[in-house]
Design goal:
With about 190 residues, the chain is α+β, with helices and mostly antiparallel strands. The protein has helices at about 25-35, 55-60, 85-105, 110-120; strands at about 5-10, 15-20, 40-45, 50. It has a four-stranded antiparallel β-sheet with strand order 2-1-3-4. The longest helix is centred in the middle third of the chain and has 22 residues, at about 85-105.
C-alpha cells in the first residue's frame, strides 16, 4: 500500500511519533494514554509536508509562493548565466553561416555576395577548400603484392628471382627456459 501523505499524528515534546491514522477516532485511545505520561503530547494533522491544527486549516491556507521566478537558464552566481552560453552562441552563428551558404549554393549562385555580406564575421581561420585529386600525393597504403596491383604513382615491388632461396636458421633452445614439468597431484585421502 502506498504511503499516505495526509494523516493524523501524535507529537510529543515537539517530536513526531510513529502513531498515525487517517481518522482522529483511531488515535484517541493511544493519545489519551500518552498524555498521562507526557502532558506536552498533541494531536496534529500532517499534510503537504507540514503539521496543521486540523484538515480545515490545511485546506484554508494557500501554499507559499516563491518571490523570485527562476527560469530554465538560471544559474547561481553574479550574472545567473551559464558561462558556456558564449561558446554556444559562437557555434550557432557559424552553423547559421554554413546553412546560409548551402542555401545560396542550391539557389543557383544568385545572391552569393549578399549572403556572404549578411553572414556574421568570425575570427576563425577560413575553412580550407579541397584540392583536385591529381594534385594530392599518394597516401601510404599496403604495399602492392601478387594479388594487389600497384596504385597510380606507386612503384611495383621487386620480384625475387625464382632460384634464390631464403633460409632462416633456427635458434638453439636456451637452457633453463622451457616449460616446467607439471607436479603430480596428491592422491585424495580416503575418508574414515
Amino acid at each position: 500500500m502506498p504511503p499516505r501523505h495526509a494523516y493524523w499524528t501524535i507529537i510529543v515534546d515537539d517530536l513526531p511519533t510513529a502513531f498515525r491514522a487517517v481518522s482522529r477516532e483511531e488515535l484517541l485511545p493511544t493519545f489519551e494514554r500518552l498524555r498521562q505520561k507526557h502532558p506536552t503530547a498533541v494531536l496534529r494533522w500532517f499534510a503537504r509536508g507540514r503539521v496543521w491544527e486540523s484538515p480545515e486549516a490545511a485546506r484554508q491556507r494557500p501554499p507559499a509562493k516563491r518571490s523570485e521566478h527562476r527560469g530554465r537558464d538560471w544559474r547561481p552566481g553574479g550574472e545567473h548565466r551559464d558561462p558556456r552560453d558564449r561558446f554556444r552562441e559562437e557555434r550557432q552563428a557559424r552553423w547559421r553561416a554554413v546553412r546560409a551558404r548551402a542555401r545560396v549554393g542550391r539557389s543557383g549562385g544568385a545572391g552569393r555576395r549578399e549572403a556572404a555580406a549578411s553572414a556574421p564575421k568570425t575570427t576563425h581561420a577560413p575553412v580550407p577548400q579541397p584540392k583536385p585529386h591529381q594534385d594530392r600525393p599518394v597516401p601510404p597504403g599496403p604495399p602492392p603484392g601478387p594479388d594487389r596491383p600497384p596504385r597510380p604513382g606507386q612503384e611495383p615491388p621487386p620480384v625475387p628471382s625464382p632460384t634464390e632461396e631464403i633460409v632462416i636458421p633456427r635458434d638453439p633452445p636456451e637452457r633453463g627456459r622451457g616449460r616446467r614439468p607439471a607436479k603430480p597431484r596428491p592422491k585424495p585421502r580416503p575418508r574414515r
